[in-house]
Q: What sequence folds into this?
């Protein structure tokens, strides 16, 4: 399952994501990972969730992020949920204006395929107006 929290800057996406991370960490018996850009959520996230600062690993493209996610899962088969905060900051080429929605759709489809084949869920934040979401993106949006 892939879920996207989408909204313009300042609409509470990160707070919503942090709440979901904490809820998952408290409920799930398996591993919960949150990938963020910079150490911003350190004091908001439950200690049972693994918090990963993408800048510490120089993650800066969607392809690198895919490889990182694959490596995380290869080394930890018990991961049940991966949260990604600020996708456009972690993989800046996806957030270049004007947005290339085909690239964003492709990344979401990759996550969906990875989720289906490995049994891991993804929730991520995307900074853009909800009304800009394409039809393919809308199926992932959290209502």
A:
């Amino acid at each position: 399952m892939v879920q996207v929290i989408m909204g313009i800057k300042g609409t509470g996406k990160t707070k919503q994501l942090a709440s979901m991370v904490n809820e998952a960490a408290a409920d799930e018996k398996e591993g919960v990972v949150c990938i963020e850009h910079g150490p911003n959520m350190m004091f908001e996230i439950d200690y049972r969730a693994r918090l990963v600062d993408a800048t510490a690993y120089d993650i800066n493209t969607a392809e690198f992020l895919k490889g990182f996610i694959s490596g995380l899962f290869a080394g930890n088969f018990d991961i049940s949920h991966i949260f990604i905060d600020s996708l456009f900051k972690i993989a800046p080429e996806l957030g270049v204006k004007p947005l290339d929605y085909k690239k964003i759709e492709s990344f979401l489809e990759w996550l969906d395929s990875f989720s289906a084949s490995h049994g891991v869920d993804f929730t991520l934040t995307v900074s853009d107006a909800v009304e800009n979401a394409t039809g393919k993106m809308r199926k992932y949006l959290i209502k």
